Amino acid sequence: MSSSQNGEGKEVLAYTLEFNHHPLRNLTPLALGGRDPKELDWSIEVEPFSNFSFQMMRSNILSLCTDDQFSNIRDSVVFLKPPPQPLPEEIELLHTSYEDQLKDLNPDQAKCVLKSLLCGGISPEEGILSGRYHMVLGTPGSGKTTTIVALVKILASLKQRVLLVNSTNQATDNILLRLKESGFDDFIRITNNLSSVEPALHGNAKTTSMFESMKAIKETFDSTYVFGTTCLQMNNTLLLCVNGGRFDYCVMDEASQVSEPLALGPVLISDRFVMVGDYYQVSPLVKSPLAERKGLGISLFERLCRAHPQNVTVLKRQYRMNRDILALSNEIVYNGVMIQGQCNEESLRVQYQTNAK
Question: In degrees to the nearest 10, what's the CA dihedral of 34, 38, 42, 45?
């Protein structure tokens, strides 16, 4: 409690209470120092969001539903307007243009990259159409990361600004490390704290404290086209300095793990988005049984995949399991979709010794 005097010299008492989800139950005589709640002239109720991530989720949903600049995205993710599909001849023509960059990919991976490049769409009247997207369902060991690396490198060569996101710092760093291992080092890792970033990426990492002015940030970022961070960093000042806070592409890895309200953040600030994941393996972590029943346990990735299966590229060739484990996974989970990729099966067998004689 604090007290002060207003302009008329009268004492004003102010009580600060921590509200739960039932605000009226907080206004008790005990909480008010023995004072009857009925004696209060007025009260100010603050939304009971104490967790930063929930505040961001709420903001994402409000922006999607109320801001007219997101109408195309709203049509896609709320009203499930089907995205246009590229023609086979368009895919083939593009493949010819990028044959060298795609030579190490299998047919599924190459198709994924090409359809992702073609998902943008340009209208003579409206220019770039936001809200266009492509979904990539990657079965276990099918080379999801390899595919993302190839896509990001091509987009960067086209001077497309790419927002590469994941749900955790470690997962974000893993994909950036793969980019670095492939010979691509021209990216920025955006973070609030260097301690959350892999030491091998410290040379690429940027925090707001490293800059003295907005001008310095823009000068540093203007020549970079790939930015990696987590879905919780969408209000980071550094992101606002990238092309006015707008990206050409959002590439979301492990998208099936990201809850829908959180996934909306990077989607809203990007003209197109590509989601990569596997909802058969993982889904958003939801602690509340009620929230899960209400749909929070279903990711935006899964919902869009099921709504428009024609807009999904399935990476079905896997390189991690031997044939026996593959057959079991196919039978239990994947409906026979997965097939064995070309690899040394002996290297996939578990080697063990026994003391039995």
Answer: 70
- Assess contact for 182 and 171: CB atoms under 8 A: no
Domains of the chain from N-terminus onward = 2-39 (no CATH), 52-315 (3.40.50.300), 317-357 (no CATH)
The predicted model gives 6-31 an average pLDDT of 51
Place of tokens 């058969």: 280
Confidence at 312, pLDDT banded by 50, 70, 90: very high
Any idea which residue has 């600004």 for tokens?
A: 161
Q: What is the per-residue pLDDT for 330?
A: 87
Rounded to an integer, the average pLDDT of 301-328 is 92
pLDDT tens string 55-80: 888 899 999 999 999 999 999 999 99
CA contacts within 13 A on the Cβ side of 333 = 14
Average pLDDT score over the chain? 83
Instruction: Give the confidence band of 336 by pLDDT, cuts at 50, 70, 90.
Output: confident
